[in-house]
Design a protein that fits this description.
Layout (H helix, E strand, L loop, with lengths): L6 H10 L1 E6 L3 H15 L25 H6 L3 H11 L3 E11 L7 E4 L7 E2 L4 E6 L10 E3 L11 E2 L13 E2 L9 E2 L6 E6 L4 E3 L8 E10 L3 E2 L6 E6 L8 E2 L9 H18 L2 H5 L3
Parallel strand pairs: 14-15
Antiparallel strand pairs: 1-10, 2-12, 2-14, 3-11, 4-13, 5-10, 5-12, 6-9, 6-11, 7-8
Length: 283
Amino acid sequence: MSRLITPSQVEAYRRDGMVFPLDAFPPDEAERYRQALVRCCAEAERPISEAGIRQPSNRVKSYLLFPWAAELIRHPAILDAVEAVIGPDILTFHSTIWWKPAGSAGIVPWHQDGTYFGLAPFEHVTAWISLTGSDLEMGCVEALPGSHIAGQRAHRDRKDPNIMLSRGQSVADAVDEGQAVPMILRPGQFSLHHTMLLHASRPNRSTHDRIGIGISYVPTHVRHIGETRLSATLVRGEDRHGHFEPEPRPKAEGDPAAIAAHAEAIGRFWTASEAIPEMALVH
């Protein structure tokens, strides 16, 4: 058991579907990652290419584009905690940069991460790493403890320009927000939450940007239930199952091979996601 996560914290994760705060690295290292992120991902979309094609967002699966992000998903402190809850053979399935500028109206409605991923069984865990600190005023993640136990819930798509999720996906049933727990983090800390945990976040009412990275980890026996073969990155242990196409590690920022690999991985992901809502509710 890692010294960074105790048996009682692992028990809390099983019971509540969440555990926080956990320490990944000191504030100065968080600042180093923050500066790299701002330098590389200040724009949500990468520029239009010479061929007139807009490239996939560099805020999604950034670890395929940037060496600093590839380093982050392999950080030993994060992987030690992840291993304690899903075992030693670990894939990074996805990652998303969650950047709420100061005063932003951006929100994330109540939802479950696993609804649109199409993974089985429901064993993936999200590590949410805070690079700036994240509290209630900044619109930190809030969650309903124990809500993962009921399993998959029906979701619907919502059209709202302030929703930070791609389809505006949100749980269809009413949520008792009075039971929500704010997952407050300092720079360099992270939380773990189960893929079926109901969680959301409010607008950033502070005068500081709130920047974090959500990294989705799965044990290697988890598979994608759709027809499209998706990709993932082995970050610890051994993959004896081969359910995902292996992803290459970027050699440098701007590396053409990395840009191509990223575009292909995102293309597979979005193709598969179009069929997931119906499938995810029945498996």
